[in-house]
Amino acid sequence: MKTRHFLKALDEARIVEAIRAAENRTSGEIRVFVSSRKRPGHPVLERAARQFEKLGMAKTRERNGVLLYFVPENREFAIIGDKGVHEKCGGTLWSDVAADLRRGMAAGDFTASILGAVSAVGEALARHFPHRPDDIDELSNAVGED
CATH number of 3-130: 3.40.630.30, 2.40.128.110, 3.40.190.170, 3.10.310.50? Predict the structure, then answer.
């Protein structure tokens, strides 16, 4: 699928609102990023990790950022969580969220799939990183793209 078609199919306002709502319950940070860069031979997880760094997600106060990274033209996605998230949530969170995303994406329900992923990640972050009175929104909630 062409990246522009994927982006047109997304309801960005609903995704931004879901991120905002999730982050109101946690000190964690959630980002969604859509890449138009096809890089055959370069694993999507490595590309997502590089984007994670570029977005400054490794610089959150509690190391509790999560990136949902999509490459529509390759039909790929990756979920990257920072050190603090891995320590608290483990790999089960990623495999569960990835399985749900995979099903939803295959069905073509892109916005609903991403909303579900944001909600699941937000719930996990809220359990392990509750919202703090001095919390600030450290990263943009907008859907990023290149």
Answer: 3.10.310.50
